[in-house]
Amino acid sequence: MVAVADFDASGGLVPRARDLSDLNTFALVSQASAYVQLRSAGDLPRLAELATRYESLLVLGGGSNVVLPSAIGGLVAHVALRGVRLVGEDEESRIVEAAAGESWHDFVTQCVARGWDGLENLALIPGTVGAAPVQNIGAYGVELCDRFAGLTAYDLHSRRWVDMEAAECAFAYRDSIFKHEPGRWVITAVRMRLPKRWQPVLEYPDLRRYPGLAAAPTARDIFGAVCEIRRSKLPDPATLGNAGSFFKNPVVPANRYEALQARFPGLVGYPHGGDAYKLAAGWLIDRCGWKGRRMGPVGVHERQALVLVNYGGASADDVLTLAAAVRSDVGERYGVELEIEPVVVAAPRR
Ligand code: EPU
Hints:
The chain has helices at residues 43-51, 104-113, 144-147, 166-169, 177-180, 205-209, 219-233, 254-263, 281-287, 316-334; strands at 16-19, 31-38, 57-60, 66-67, 71-79, 84-89, 93-99, 138-139, 142-143, 148-155, 160-164, 185-195, 241-245, 251-253, 269-271, 276-279, 294-295, 298-300, 307-310, 343-344. With 350 residues, it is of the alpha+beta class. It has three domains: 2-79, 2-Layer Sandwich (Uridine Diphospho-n-acetylenolpyruvylglucosamine Reductase, domain 2), CATH 3.30.43; 84-232, Uridine Diphospho-n-acetylenolpyruvylglucosamine Reductase, domain 3; 235-344, UDP-N-acetylenolpyruvoylglucosamine reductase, C-terminal domain (Uridine Diphospho-n-acetylenolpyruvylglucosamine Reductase, domain 1, Alpha-Beta Complex). The strands form six sheets. A five-stranded antiparallel sheet has the order 6-7-12-10-11. A four-stranded mixed sheet has the order 1-2-5-3, with helices on one face. The chain is globular and about 60 Å long. Uridine-diphosphate-2(N-acetylglucosaminyl) butyric acid (EPU) binds next to strand 13 and helix 9. Residues 139-140, 204, 206, 234, 244-245, 248-249, 268, 280, 282-283, 286, 291, 304-306, 341 line the site of uridine-diphosphate-2(N-acetylglucosaminyl) butyric acid.
């Protein structure tokens, strides 16, 4: 990679044009006219100043949960802050902090290797540490918010550094305050609380069924199992562009779930909170016949219907056209509305 200066002589950030296809896991072709990389905390106040000159700001981490338009007119800030450290410890737990630009999976791998257990169920999730709180990543029975200790962010509105606790982040299923106010905060570091009296989390059906995890598994065993399960059904973005689950699993009231189950006996759903059920959207899409189907350069993955994939050269329009067709079929057949999970970045106003 050619090192084009991101900084001028005074240390100011200098935006430049950049193709973002290697910075989003969907591998969508997307041309940014003003791109900067943030490499140190000192860049944040400069970013706040620079952002006032643009109509929008997109903060990009690993690009694993976004659908980027073909052209981006606003400012794009790519977070590349690095570092992992132990910042607190008592009898109960360790607090481990990772900088926002670290790869999430590398962070999990490092923790498990050091015996800092608790994140193993979240292995192999693509993306960066800084993006993890945005959608409150979750897999195999654990969500980020279950282990979250706090984060540091720069508030571009007040131009102040803030430390935020879980309650302030408003975490919910694949949701947080950061999804609702995009462009306000730049998350620079995330802290996780890892219990010293670790207990395995094995409720998720795929893990319960996994051979070898029945008797006293270690965090390393679970880490290995999660990696293997994910590799067996989810496409690797390095070889087939995708943004993980493209739809959220819809949450419906219990009576609606029962009515659906009576009509569609194989329906997959799990209790969610008091009087609600989370339906497996992958099952609904699969039963509508979409699994493995292609539409131009995009398609529905052949092993996991919840994942849309880019076979090469796709644009956001291709992806959103396919998503609309899938949503329409699921809506018609099951009366259930699917919500898109990744952040769809708006195309510039013409
Ligand atoms: N199913 C089908 N056909 C499919 C896909 C799934 O019938 O094509 C059925 C499965 O047989 C299973 C059920 O649907 O009974 C659930 O499937 P799976 O265990 O694969 O999980 P999921 O609900 O589809 C969610 C998360 C994943 C996460 C897994 C494991 C969401 C939107 N997705 O998928 O997260 O890895 O559980 O915890 O909540 C992501 O967010 O990007 C992601 C991959």
